[in-house]
Amino acid sequence: MFKFGTIGAFKQVRNNPRTKAVIQLKNGSVVIPDDSTGLAPTPATPTIAKGKDVHVVWNIIDKPEIRSFSDFVIEAGEYVRAFKLADLADLPVELSYDIVKDDFGTVPVGAYLVPCDAEDDPSQDGKWKMSAATDYAVKIKVLEKTTFGDKGFYGKVVVQ
């Protein structure tokens, strides 16, 4: 799950609702929308994951059969609403642990979460991972552990 930490963030961030999911995604998944193909794949290589075109999926839950936010998924072929994280520089966001590769207990306050890519993390498509690498253009600094989505992270978007 994912949400902005402030109401004003929604007005300031660009979103792309014109591309479709390539794989099953959750709100909070990382995608790189491509208007020329109409698809929103997850980062394929470390170079792509380290770029500034990182978007996060945050669809409106429009399926009445969904009883819990954590059960909501965007199926392959469905449109995604992808928000450009670089527009959220220095603003807070919240992520639930189920879209983070690392175990909740091993992610300390002060750590950075960066996008997983298919080359380095083949089974973690669209997820976030903890990294000390400094060459990611967009990352999330964990400021606090919370109960968002059962276990979650409150963090600040850092853009280099």
Strand content bin: 25-35%
- The SSE string, one letter per element, is EHEEEHEEEEEEE
Helicity, as a percent range: under 10%
What characteristic shape results from the CA principal axes?
A: globular
Rg of Cα set: 14 Å
How is the largest sheet built, in terms of strand order?
1-7-11-10-8-9
As residue ranges, the low-confidence spans are none
Straight-line N-to-C gap:
25 Å
Oligomer: single chain
What count of helical segments does DSSP give? Answer: 2
**Which class do the helix and strand fractions yield?**
mainly beta
Can you count the beta strands? 11
Q: Compute the average pLDDT.
A: 92
**What summary fits the major beta sheet?**
6 strands, antiparallel
Strand-helix topology:
Layout: E1 2-4, H1 9-12, E2 15-21, E3 30-31, E4 39-40, H2 46-49, E5 55-57, E6 79-84, E7 92-96, E8 112-115, E9 128-130, E10 138-146, E11 152-159
Parallel strand pairs: 2-4
Antiparallel strand pairs: 1-7, 2-6, 3-5, 5-6, 7-11, 8-9, 8-10, 10-11
What does this structure look like?
The protein is mainly beta. Helices cover 5% and strands 32% of the residues. The chain has helices at residues 9-12, 46-49, and strands spanning 2-4, 15-21, 30-31, 39-40, 55-57, 79-84, 92-96, 112-115, 128-130, 138-146, 152-159. The protein has a 6-stranded antiparallel sheet with strand order 1-7-11-10-8-9, with no helix packed on it. Strands 3-5-6-2-4 form a 5-stranded mixed sheet, with no helix packed on it. The longest helix has 4 residues, at 9-12. The radius of gyration is 14 Å and the shape is globular. The mean pLDDT is 92.
